[in-house]
Amino acid sequence: MAFRDKVRTRVGVGQAIQRAGPILALFGGAWLVGQAGPQMAFAVLAMPSAFGILIALRLPRAVSPAKSRS
């Protein structure tokens, strides 16, 4: 029973973190535009996006089950 409670807690914390990201980006991006201007804000926000793309490109490619049956 205790294991199930811990699983629920971990899932809940993970969901909270996932939902907090866009909210922080919304407020942080608006603040950054007010402080540095729109061009600099887009440049600053592009850096983590580019880093995320690099990480995504390094992920292993998945083989779909439909292709492996042929």
What can you see in these coordinates?
The mean pLDDT is 84. It is built from three helices and no strands. It has one domain. It is an all-alpha fold. Helices cover 86% and strands 0% of the residues.
Q: How many domains is the backbone divided into?
A: 1
Number of DSSP-assigned strands: 0
* Oligomeric status: single chain
Q: Give the SSE order as H and E letters.
A: HHH
**Fraction of residues in β-strands:** under 5%
Radius of gyration: 19 Å
N/C terminus separation:
44 Å
- Name the structural class: mainly alpha
Shape: flat
Number of helix segments?
3
Main sheet?
A: none
Low-confidence stretches: none
Q: Please estimate the helix content.
A: over 70%
Mean pLDDT across every amino acid position: 84
Topology:
Blueprint: H1 2-36, H2 38-57, H3 65-69
Helix pairs in contact: 1-2
Can you summarize this structure?
This protein is mainly α. Helix content is about 85%, strand content about 0%.
Which short descriptors sum up this protein?
mainly alpha, 86% helix, flat, 70 residues
